[in-house]
Amino acid sequence: MAKDKPTKLRARMPRGFADRGPGELVPTRAMLETIRRVYELYGFEALETPFIEYTDALGKFLPDQDRPNEGVFSFQDDDEQWLSLRYDLTAPLARHVAENFDKLPKPFRSYRAGWVFRNEKPGPGRFRQFMQFDADTVGAPTVAADAELCMMMADTLEALGIARGDYVIKVNNRKVLDGVLEAIGLGGDENAGRRLTVLRAIDKSDKVGISGVRDLLGEGRWENPEAKSGDFTKGAGLDEGQIEIVLASLDPAAGQAAENDAYRAGKAELDEIREFVNAAGYANRIRIDPSVVRGLEYYTGPVFEAELTFEVKDEKGRPVRFGSVGGGGRYDGLVGRFRGEAVPATGFSIGVSRLASALSYLKQDAAPEFGPVVVVVMDRDQTAHYMGLVGTLRQAGIRAEMYLGNPKNLGNQFKYADRRNSPCVVIQGSDERASGQVQIKDLIEGAKAAAAITDNAEWRESRPAQFACGEDELVAKVRELLDHHGVPHGAALG
């Protein structure tokens, strides 16, 4: 009787998630370190919160949907409490502040970097797991705290290599928007759905223009308005008078769009922010923009977005514009959910993946990230000696490894070093070992020389970029090679 063939498990990744290799991780790590330095320069300190929170701690503020807890990954633990993967980094901060309120300095200034999770339909560039990097000030009622976050975001983008003029920090105020909604009769819980439709129409002004916003505020808009074809987006159903009030709020030259306390308070706060950023020398980098909405419903005051304005070409020559890479605002009600009193708070969140993608376009011509120096194995019975050479390099702060595959084929060891993008390999056969020497093959220079040599005989004769040195010179010669090519290396250990 034939034995059943063992079942082979199919390797597959859940939709909306991604593996990330060194080509993405290394520049992202450098980017996060730059952001951290700027945040700490402004006096923010590190905080880490768990990936998982009690679902009710996240509550109705998740996400931009009408129903609470929509879009989160949730499960029950062994005592039947509902838990959820965090949807953002702000709700966990609010829980942390409320839980430790009496111990924390106020204002409490913290930054956090970490993964967040959204149980939403994935699509191109839309993942269920992505990283954010937040900075928040809790306990500061003045809009100077909001202005400071906008200035810090501008400094962060420039520290990352984005030129002044290639980005803008746009600022609006939810009180202004609330005042406009009140003026057109959309206050109260019964109008929550229509309010959201109006806000989404305003948010699309940079994509569809004022005429498109007008359509979305009215009966709706066709994807191809002139031909009235394509998808149709149902509008908010406002009458002409209501539409004119909303459109007036988007026109800085139109004057007062609404006459109520919320609108006036929001305008006054925007004037303060303008005064602060102008006095600090950020006038051309931070501007008031009445089209900024921000999606989450917990915002209570100033809201802001960091937008990249430069355009690049993708691999097919098509224009790519990245738009918003971060945003935030004031959320004076979020911490108060746990305390029964309002606690002022404001914060900014960077979308790490989107910003990293933008930076990769800016730095396409940057030098590649080099791998470790590879010590090849010529004689298997001398493995311990090769390991000693590796140890010597590591103690000197030089990234190094010994080849751990099958050492029979020397060519495969060189191919391995090439795939690791190693700057050089260290070679020592029995003759070199007997004379206390090693050979160092410069793979960077060797690649340049190989490109210029077409004749095999010439290649064999020249042995480009390979030289001998004493074992006691190994560290000095490798450092010299790395410095020559601008390859970074660390200080000696111990």
Automatic annotation (TrEMBL):
Name used for this protein in its record: Histidine--tRNA ligase
Keyword Electron transport: no
Lineage: Bacteria, Pseudomonadati, Pseudomonadota, Alphaproteobacteria, Hyphomicrobiales
Family: Belongs to the class-II aminoacyl-tRNA synthetase family.
Gene name per UniProt: hisS
Pfam families, per the entry: HGTP_anticodon, tRNA-synt_His
E.C. numbers: 6.1.1.21
Limits of the Aminoacyl-transfer RNA synthetases class-II family profile domain: 31-368
Source organism of this protein record: Ancylobacter aquaticus
Main location as per UniProt: cytoplasm
Enzyme class: ligase
GO cellular component: cytoplasm
UniProt subunit comment: Homodimer.
Subcellular location: Cytoplasm
Keyword annotations: Aminoacyl-tRNA synthetase, ATP-binding, Cytoplasm, Ligase, Nucleotide-binding, Protein biosynthesis
Matching CDD domains: HisRS-like_core, HisRS_anticodon
Origin: domain of life: Bacteria
Catalytically driven reaction(s): tRNA(His) + L-histidine + ATP = L-histidyl-tRNA(His) + AMP + diphosphate + H(+)
Gene Ontology biological process terms, A to Z: histidyl-tRNA aminoacylation
